[in-house]
Amino acid sequence: MSATIIDGKAYAAGLRARIATQVEPFKAAAGRAPGLAVVLVGEDAASSVYVRSKGRATREAGMESFEHRLSADIDQATLMALVAALNADPAVDGILVQLPLPAHLDAQAVIQAIDPDKDVDGFHPVNAGRLATGLPGFVPCTPLGCLMLLRDVHGTLAGLDAVVVGRSNIVGKPMAQLLLQESCTVTIAHSRTRDLPAKVRAADIVVAAVGIPKLIEGGWIKPGATVIDVGINRTETGLVGDVDFEGARAVAGAITPVPGGVGPMTIAVLLRNTLVSAGRRMGVSIDETLL
Ligand SMILES: Nc1nc(=O)c2c([nH]1)NC[C@@H]1CN(c3ccc(C(=O)N[C@@H](CCC(=O)O)C(=O)O)cc3)C=[N+]21
Question: Is the peptide bond before 100 cis (omega within 30 degrees of 0)?
Answer without folding.
Answer: yes
